[in-house]
């Protein structure tokens, strides 16, 4: 299987985020350290990324409110995500923060961190020691490591290196990651997490409702770029998204399309970002939102009441 086109989706998403940040959709002073070049994107793409970032953020906040500072975050297929630094700026303390992605991607991220002291200083404020290899970085409570999510023993080994506690409440984040992985590998990963962790919330942002013409066009565009969507059958509906967790021994799952997520964001924030760029085709944005969702799965009872607004 050729993983290069999948790895390239990280660059594309990072460029989209940088572009939207530059226009003022949300604040992220760290993304420019990872992305230099940007191309102008259509307004609906920028709004889509805004909804994605803010939607996922609400579940992160909800998790941290319930789990407290002794908890952990494991960001799967993290790419150039800057969440660790943004949480630091918000004064949020967390016991352990782990990022896992293809070694080729983490090598580039480690290099960027090493080269920019603004990134490096923020990750070793606690004990000052940084352990760095070509693909892995460990500093204080931050760990960026290269591994293939299809290889459970590799993932387990990396989590052990990061001193992840299986008995501590843990948030798993995956944004457009599982869709690129074969179904049996995703099932094994989710079942393994369910067997190891006592208390966890999994936040998955991904496509849904793909069984229509709009979905076919989206899939065609991705396949034209060489992306093999090995896990697309789980993206048929909100039900198939939830079923993936329930079939792999998670206690419960809920899912919402991005129309629900977007219109549940504060009205003042929506009004602010809707003034940034004029949107000619409101219908196109709604269609886009109908084809993406956030699905959450949980282990342990403390996260069972998580809702559309993240509360």
Automatic annotation (TrEMBL):
Q: Does the keyword Transferase apply?
A: yes
Q: What is its EC number?
A: 2.1.1.233
Q: What is this protein called?
A: Leucine carboxyl methyltransferase 1
Q: What GO biological process terms are annotated to this protein in UniProt?
A: methylation; regulation of mitotic cell cycle spindle assembly checkpoint
User: Belongs to which family?
Assistant: Belongs to the methyltransferase superfamily. LCMT family.
Q: Which keywords has UniProt assigned to this entry?
A: Methyltransferase, S-adenosyl-L-methionine, Transferase
List the Gene Ontology MF annotations in alphabetical order.
protein C-terminal leucine carboxyl O-methyltransferase activity
**What is this enzyme's catalytic activity, as reactions?**
[phosphatase 2A protein]-C-terminal L-leucine + S-adenosyl-L-methionine = [phosphatase 2A protein]-C-terminal L-leucine methyl ester + S-adenosyl-L-homocysteine
Q: Which domain of life is it from?
A: Eukaryota
The role this protein plays is: Methylates the carboxyl group of the C-terminal leucine residue of protein phosphatase 2A catalytic subunits to form alpha-leucine ester residues.
Positions with a binding annotation for S-adenosyl-L-methionine: 52, 77, 148-149, 175
